[in-house]
Write a structure and sequence with these properties.
It contains five helices and four strands. The chain is α+β, with helices and mostly antiparallel strands and 136 residues long.
Amino acid sequence: MYEAMIFWETAPIPDQPSWVVDFTKIWRGADKIVFSKTLASVSSTRTTLEREFNVKAIRQTKADTTHDLTVGGADLAAQAIGAGLVEEFHLFFWPLALGGGKPAVLGTGVSIFNNSVSDAPAAESSTFTTPSPPSE
């Protein structure tokens, strides 16, 4: 995921649609934590590389911040949802298939689909809330 998202670090802004400019600015201004056991290093600014998904540390980061946190990638999202770290999530659907894909909420106990994703219109967005996180 990081190797694909790093594009936004140097993405050209001139003559781009406003949503591209907005996302590029958000990416560049965000503090990022990359969780990877295989990535040797990160090259984007404001980026930390972590080897393990440490629920306690993430919970503390979440408590210490005043803004929303985001999670990218199906595997990482599933871990965060399963650990009770996610209060709300947004899924965006585009009718495009690349490879086999990954279920977004596999193994989390969250069931959200009543119909086929292939029936969703282009760029449809849905918001879901999750139960309160488990107490420690």
